[in-house]
């Protein structure tokens, strides 16, 4: 999809958005056009969308040297990445179930399921043997987690978080679920929800052995790239389930990834969903990410709101409520374009706010001045009259900076480098936009009337 070229920044490296299909390709799909200052001069370059760490993908090309791009050489690298992968052949689950458990093996080196009676070439490889039926159907519990935080990090949801999210989705009436980088949810759906359908889009090619071609697509979420064209067709067909009704998307991207790229992918999927189903309503989406990334997400996806639910992971030292977890609980939340008033949270750790008409965490107190339940980090916020907003209780107001911040901070002027979503000018956020009233009035003319606020409900 061609888009108007624009530049957004993050740190010292900026992303220049354009038509990805026209970009050079590396083994992970179309590359991204970045920009950075080199000795006072801004230079553009192409690099891998999946990983900026050149140890994982060494593609690098200055934009002015594009004419020297060795397409044939990189096509060989692409063929090498795709070589030997035949989803139909790798997916041997149905045959493997018939094999005695003592003879079942998953080879980590070759990333495939093996019947040891027929093939002994893996005997000296790193592998897991004697797989039970349960393990075959729950690959996330036997596959070592990938740990590159900028590419394909796998922090797996806890059982309680999976069950809470599934209860949430079913209450909302969803029956067809797109799982982008959420294998644990897909796994749960495949094994425990016969009345629901799901498809997994994930960068981890090991899933070829455990999920069939209709349930899994090898996919790069940072550039909306399907490694095989037939997988793209499978996804398009899934988008049209029940003419687009009762379908939703849930994604759990690597926390080190660029939010602009993820947002661009979600927008692309949303546009494709609307076009294929000939509808005007947006695809319901749930983006799982740390609470402190809210400004970046809202700047790219202003219609998204943060749900005050703490998502827990079983294989991350801090992202859970156990004895060794973070004192304030997991910092990971759910951002969604679904009306927060329609989402119920568990009674044990959450409560319903009559004024806000939504569920929030127990420690989240309603602020009359802000007219909102303002806590985000897992502690009860306090209101600062000078800032006209609520802040963390450990912060204090700094007269020099003109804002509340940490006590031991270094006073400086904070500069926002990205462009404002409201007016498209750089240097400020939407919340501080001088054209808020002007642009907002235009948007309200095209916005449908919101349903009247419901009266207090019984829970």
TrEMBL record:
Main location: cytoplasm
Pfam families reported for this sequence: N6-adenineMlase, zf-CCHC
Occurrences of domain CCHC-type (ranges): 420-435
InterPro entries in the cross-refs: DNA_methylase_N6_adenine_CS, Mlase_EEF1AKMT1/ZCCHC4, ZCCHC4, Znf_CCHC
Subcellular location: Cytoplasm
Keyword set, alphabetical order: Cytoplasm, Metal-binding, Methyltransferase, Nucleus, Transferase, Zinc, Zinc-finger
Biased composition, class Basic and acidic residues, residue ranges: 426-435
Segments for region (Disordered): 426-459
GO cellular component: cytoplasm; nucleolus
Molecular-function GO term, any one: nucleic acid binding
Protein name: CCHC-type domain-containing protein
């Amino acid at each position: 999809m061609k888009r108007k070229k624009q530049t957004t920044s993050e740190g010292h490296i900026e992303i220049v958005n354009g038509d990805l299909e026209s970009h050079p390709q590396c083994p992970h799909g179309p590359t991204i056009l970045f920009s950075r200052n080199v000795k006072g001069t801004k230079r553009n370059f192409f690099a891998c969308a999946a990983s900026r760490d050149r140890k994982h993908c060494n593609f690098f090309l200055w934009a002015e040297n594009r004419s020297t791009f060795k397409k044939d050489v990189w096509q060989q690298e692409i063929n090498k990445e795709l070589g030997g992968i035949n989803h139909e052949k790798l997916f041997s689950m149905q045959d493997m179930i018939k094999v005695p458990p003592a003879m079942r093996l998953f080879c980590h080196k070759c990333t495939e399921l093996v019947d040891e009676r027929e093939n002994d070439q893996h005997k000296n490889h790193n592998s897991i043997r004697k797989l039970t039926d349960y393990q075959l159907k729950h690959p996330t519990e036997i596959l070592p987690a990938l740990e590159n935080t900028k590419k394909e990090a796998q922090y797996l949801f806890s059982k309680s978080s999976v069950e809470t999210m599934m209860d949430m989705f079913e209450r909302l009436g969803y029956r067809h679920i797109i799982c982008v980088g959420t294998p644990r949810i897909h796994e749960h759906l495949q094994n425990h929800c016969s009345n629901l359908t799901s498809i997994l889009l994930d960068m981890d090619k090991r899933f070829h052995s455990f999920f069939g071609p209709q349930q899994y697509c090898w996919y790069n979420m940072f550039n909306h790239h399907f490694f095989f064209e037939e997988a793209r067709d499978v996804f398009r067909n899934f988008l049209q389930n029940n003419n687009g009704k009762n379908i939703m998307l849930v994604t759990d991207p690597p926390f080190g990834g660029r939010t602009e790229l993820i947002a661009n992918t979600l927008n692309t999927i949303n546009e494709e969903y609307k076009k294929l189903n000939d509808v005007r309503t947006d695809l319901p989406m749930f983006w799982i990410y740390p609470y402190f990334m809210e400004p970046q997400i809202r700047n790219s996806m202003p219609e998204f709101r943060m749900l005050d639910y703490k998502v827990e992971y079983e294989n991350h030292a801090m992202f859970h409520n156990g004895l060794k977890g973070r004192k304030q609980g997991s910092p990971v939340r759910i951002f969604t374009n679904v009306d927060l008033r329609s989402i119920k949270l568990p009674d044990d750790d959450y409560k319903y706010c009559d004024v806000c008409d939504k569920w929030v965490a127990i420690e989240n107190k309603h602020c009359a001045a802000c007219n909102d339940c303002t806590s985000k980090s897992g502690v009860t916020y306090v209101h600062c009259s000078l800032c006209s907003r609520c802040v963390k209780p450990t912060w204090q107001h700094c007269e020099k900076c003109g804002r509340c911040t940490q006590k031991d901070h270094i006073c400086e002027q904070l500069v926002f480098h990205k462009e404002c979503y409201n007016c498209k000018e750089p240097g400020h956020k939407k919340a501080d936009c001088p054209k808020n009233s002007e642009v907002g009035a235009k948007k309200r003319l095209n916005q449908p009337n919101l349903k009247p606020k419901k009266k207090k409900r019984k829970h």
